[in-house]
Amino acid sequence: MFKINENYLKLPGSYLFSTIGKKVREFSEANPDKKIIRLGIGDVTLPLAPSVISALHNAVDEMAEKASFKGYAPDLGYEFLRQAIAEHDFKARGVTVAVDEIFVSDGAKSDSGNIQEIFDVSSKIAVCDPVYPVYVDSNVMAGRTGDYIAETGRWTNVIYMPCTKENNFAPELPKETPDLIYLCFPNNPTGSTITKDGLQKWVDYANEAGAVIIYDAAYEAYISEENVPHTIYECEGAKTCAIEIRSYSKNAGFTGTRLGYTVVPKELKCGDVSLNSLWARRHGTKFNGAPYIIQAAGAAIYTEAGRRETKEQIAYYMNNAKIIREGLKAAGYTVSGGVNAPYIWMETPNGMTSWEFFDYLLEKANVVGTPGSGFGPSGEGYFRLTSFGTYESTLEAVERIKKLK
Ligand code: PLP
Prior knowledge:
Blueprint: H1 7-10, H2 16-30, E1 37-38, H3 50-63, H4 79-90, E2 102-105, H5 108-114, E3 125-129, H6 134-142, E4 148-149, E5 154-155, E6 158-162, E7 180-184, H7 196-209, E8 212-216, E9 242-247, H8 249-252, E10 260-263, E11 269-270, E12 273-274, H9 275-286, H10 292-300, H11 304-330, E13 335-337, E14 343-347, H12 354-365, E15 367-368, E16 370-371, E17 382-386, H13 391-403
The structure holds pyridoxal-5'-phosphate.
């Protein structure tokens, strides 16, 4: 008789965004005349940049000709894209990453969920609290996290690193030594970042403790402050302790197009075994490769026009972030984030829980946000607003929220 992976049954019932979707659907069915503004989801709204669209068209035409048709993509990704990544994302920042340390993927969700497979099941994980839920959930599925305690919202075998107002939403080094440390900067959902000196402490700690940092830099393109590192490899010694995950979703609108990459340095070793070789083996066996058409589109982001156009998109979202941050601050709300990230993190007013405020905001302002508690226990009492809406809807949402004061 077959058995299922019972770890899946441990995951709490419904995913955060399906609960939100259900509540919003019910509200709009009951109030068909109300115009709902969505500042909740993390999806982008601007269309793909013209240079990306043009590269897509060209790549489709190539697929139509016998001479330029492409079949299976190389395991690690096309060299033209990995060269562009090494050049623009790393060399331009004074960092050396070799092309065979770059693994092109279909996005950061897959890689941040799958990377745990190359580590032993006994590995103890540490996560920022709150954070993007995929890190914990994928380790739950793998059987690493112990049991879920509903009262505390915590797993018994996970080291939580609270990101609170007191530590400026950047975690302190854990007291108990983890094997795997998931860091996400700029952070989803708090929009906080870490300074280069701050990140160096983590790198030194990981090298000393024999831990691996899994660094999710999906929001790197939103960094506006000088002292914030764009890649963990700006820190001395990071190549012996850190894997970095990147995405084209938020910097170039590829949420539906799907493309990302992960850097696994060759120097990162467990004894004699390089993690680069393990991930290469895994990629070769379990990943079909991102389509040629999509990789060609990804390379277009690095052209002069592509860089200019995608920068304009980021500027558009960051202007929305400023409108939310400054508008709500002026109205007396306590907010942070939105300077190096598309996310604004607000304290729920009048001691409301995150979900109470969600219902209140939907009911009174017809604005949808995301309850902070959905990202971890320390997110309780907070709320995430995103800057991915239109300029006009962002302005209107802020006006509505101001009026609630
Ligand atoms: N990492 C973080 C921190 C995210 O917030 C998200 C999406 O919201 C992802 C990864 C997913 O990225 P992708 O679309 O490349 O799978």
